[in-house]
Specification:
Blueprint lengths: L2 E4 L6 H14 L15 H11 L12 E8 L4 E8 L4 H7 L2 E5 L8 H15 L4 E7 L3 H9 L3 E8 L2 E9 L1
Antiparallel strand pairs: 1-2, 2-3, 3-4, 5-7, 6-7
């Protein structure tokens, strides 16, 4: 399956809302979705997404970021991936430069690995020389995705009742 990253637009409204509904129905963590899980409407989410693109308009406490939709050859939304342009203290310890998620029906098909590879190309365009990607220690699939893209485990950091693994990828 081929995957490409596209920027959100109103054309994807129904697909984005279906994506959100699928994650809610399955009780999954919607990582890398630019706050989609808490947005009341597509329009609210899309406005926040646009604001996140720039240092001048990003909401307080957040860093500029670009969130992409991952679509297949049939333009089906199969995942989302968020690239943070820089790190703050929290992201340095727990969140990293990139967050992502794949819709449940499309997992274990190599989609996350391909999404991350494409996102690393976007990181190069931003001028990043290395990126930090983190995952919960129990999320073995995500750790494999990161390692398959060149991630090197630096350490593990406890946070509340979980352990965050911190991987670096040199670009």
């Amino acid at each position: 399956m081929n995957i490409k990253l596209v920027l959100p637009s109103a054309d994807y409204k129904e697909k984005v809302l279906s994506y959100k509904a699928d994650f809610i129905k399955n009780g999954d963590s919607m990582d890398g979705a630019a706050g989609l899980e808490t947005a009341q409407t597509f329009e609210d989410w899309y406005t926040a997404w646009k604001n996140n693109l720039s240092e001048a308009t990003v909401c307080g406490g957040l860093v500029p970021a670009t969130t992409f939709l991952a679509v297949d050859d049939n333009d089906n939304l199969v995942g989302m991936i968020d690239i943070r342009h820089r790190l703050n203290d929290y992201l340095l310890n727990f969140g990293g430069h990139i967050g992502y998620s794949v819709i449940k029906s499309q997992r274990q098909k190599g989609i996350a690995t391909k999404m991350l590879s494409l996102a690393l190309d976007e990181c190069r365009k931003l001028g990043l020389q290395k990126v930090l990607i983190t995952c919960d220690k129990e999320n073995i699939a995500s750790a494999k995705t990161i390692i398959n893209n060149g991630g090197i485990l630096e350490n593990e950091v406890p946070e509340n009742n979980r352990i965050t693994q911190r991987f670096w990828i040199n670009l």
